[in-house]
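EI: anyone free to look at a 95-residue chain?
SC: sure, send it
EI:
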Amino acid sequence: MWNCRWTSIPGGSVTCNFAEFWVYDMNRPGEEPEIIKLEDLPKEYYRLQFLVDTGNEHLKREMEVSMATGEIVGLLYDAFAKQYRTPPARKRCTV
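SC: here you go
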């Protein structure tokens, strides 16, 4: 079992299966998650606001690190993509 008070851990956790976001409230362990469908995200994004608490300095730093990491991953992707050429288009036979 966890050896800390619930208030000392993040308030929520999110998992995603590319169709839905499952939002777990860590202050209510054992309860069913709130589900946000991907197609509803444009009007339901506010429900994920706890992920970007702009007043929390710790979360600001985590966001900065995450953005920097994303930039590095993008550079790696681009470098790998340059090493592979796109196969030529196949000629179509029409009868």
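EI: The CA atoms of residues 13 and 90 lie 47 Å apart.
SC: 👍
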